[in-house]
Amino acid sequence: MGNYKFLMDLAVILLCTKLLGVVTNKVQMPQVVGALLAGLLLGPSMLGVISETNFLQTIAELGVIVLMFSAGLETDIKELKKSGKSAFIVALCGVLVPLAGGFAVAHFFNRPDMIPSNASSTTLLQNIFVGVILTATSVSISVETLKELGKLQTHAGNTILGAAIIDDILGIVALTIITSITDPSVNIAMVLLKIAGFFVFSIVLGYIFFQMYKYWMTHSDKMRHRHTIIAFVFCLLMAYVAEDLFGVADITGAYIAGLIISNTDRSAYLQEKFDILSYLLLSPVFFAHIGLSVELPNMTPMIVLFTVVLCITAVLTKMAGCGFGARLCGDSPAECVRVGAGMASRGEVALIVANKGAVVGLLGSAFMGSIVVMVVVTAVTTPILLKITFRNGPVDKVSETENITSYHDVVSERRRNISRDLIKK
Questions:
Q1: Among the four 98, 185, 207, 414, which has the fewest Cβ within 10 Å?
Q2: CA 308 to CA 301: how far, in whole Å?
Q3: Contact 56/280 with Cβ under 8 angstroms?
Q4: pLDDT by residue (tens digit) across 264-318?
């Protein structure tokens, strides 16, 4: 008789992630924090009710692919272009400064006489990877906070949203490069060539697929469920080709697949379907799996000190880097502080990057616990910082034509249009 314990594991994970997600949402914290805490609570670091298995790891990997595919579906390329030069400069500074800050902190602590690491890669790559983790920005946390404050339609709100999108793309590229060179036999020039080749391949294939998919959708309006299947197949194939043929992270392929399909008329319908799939199973398992895989080390004074320094560095480097970028674009000091505060939050992207690094030996278990704490701390402090910065000083409004609408507003509007069309039919 087979072992059906995985059914009980899934039931417990889904229930706990939902309950803790509701609790964290009630105290105005992202629900992803609740899912992460559920994994920590159930895993070996605390109660030890559930242990990591190959099945959960596979579901978690599928979950992160769907998560990044959904992020691509939500991206509005036209609005991305509107953010323009200022968003790119803010995002670039918001990547370079945290990268340098994270490397410096890891370089100081990642030593046998301070915090010995059990990661398989070289110390230099481990230190760089900690910096890569700090480059991430959580779009969802920043956008939802700005919506709650009623400040999304401001100059700072537009800059934060546009820069956060570009920041995620730069972070994915950085992740791909650092994970590719963990193999000492890999030539960095060849790695960069393969990355460039993948993006060329994606442009060509994406254009062909987009035209065929768009034509098929206009001639098969009554078979919408098949649209979802074809989109999912394209997502999985792009993820496979990226990882297996080009050595690029599978989440990069999934994100680009979503980006391509986001230009179609059915993107909102597809997003709704994948939201259901992700909400019901994949996302809770993925975030809980991050917590399940964490074995918090003995909290020696040195690890506690590293965690505190890492949290402070994570917040200050984002605020300094993004604020400096905004200043270069001519923003007022008050706007620069707001942009920096809005970009300080880490979330699912940082967890994805950290998990990827742990798998390929770029992050030791002694550091994983500190990364998780950093994600939680920045997720909590960002809404507080935004409230403080928008409460003090003038706010620069923008016109409706210049406003960059949030992902959720775009999706909601498209869903309303779909509902009206269905009612008419």
A1: 185
A2: 11
A3: no
A4: 777 777 777 887 888 888 888 887 887 787 666 667 788 889 999 999 999 999 9
Query: Distance (Å, rounded) from C-alpha 147 to C-alpha 144?
Result: 5
The DSSP code sequence of 99-130 is: HHHHHHHHHHH-STTT-----SS-HHHHHHHH
Q: Find the Cα–Cα–Cα–Cα dihedral 72, 73, 77, 82, rounded to 10°.
A: -90
Q: How far apart are CA 78 and CA 268, in angstroms?
A: 16
DSSP character at residue 221: T
CB neighbour class for 78 (10 Å; exposed up to 12, middle 13-18, buried from 19): exposed
**The two structure tokens encoding residue 203:** 């442009």
- 169 touches 139 (CB < 8 A): no
Hey, how many other C-beta atoms are within 10 angstroms of the C-beta on 279?
Answer: 11
Nearest to residue 324, comparing CAs of 340, 312, 309?
340
Looking at residue 72, its amino acid is G
Residues whose CB is less than 8 angstroms from the CB of residue 404 and which lie 6 or more positions away in sequence, other chains included: 79, 82, 83, 157, 158, 161, 162
CB under 8 Å, gap of 24 or more: what pairs does 146-149 form?
A: 146/342, 146/386, 146/406, 147/406, 147/408, 148/28, 148/383, 149/386, 149/387, 149/390
For residues 176 and 192, give the distance between their C-alpha atoms in angstroms, rounded to a whole number: 10
Nearest to 408 by CA among 218, 141, 170: 141
Asked if the model's pLDDT at residue 330 lies above 80, the reply is yes
Mind listing the pLDDT tens digit for each residue in 348-401? Answer: 667 777 877 777 778 877 787 788 888 878 877 887 788 788 876 555 544 433
- The half-sphere exposure of 402 on its side-chain side, counting CA atoms within 13 A, is 12
Task: Quote the CA–CA distance of 213 and 227 in Å, as a whole number.
Answer: 8
- 422 has pLDDT over 90: no
Name the one residue in this structure whose structure tokens are 């805490």. 37
pLDDT of res. 242:
86
3 state SS of 1: coil
CA 269 to CA 274: how far, in whole Å? 9
Of 296, 333, 214, the residue nearest 47 (C-alpha): 296
How many CA atoms, within 13 angstroms, populate the side-chain half-sphere of residue 370?
33
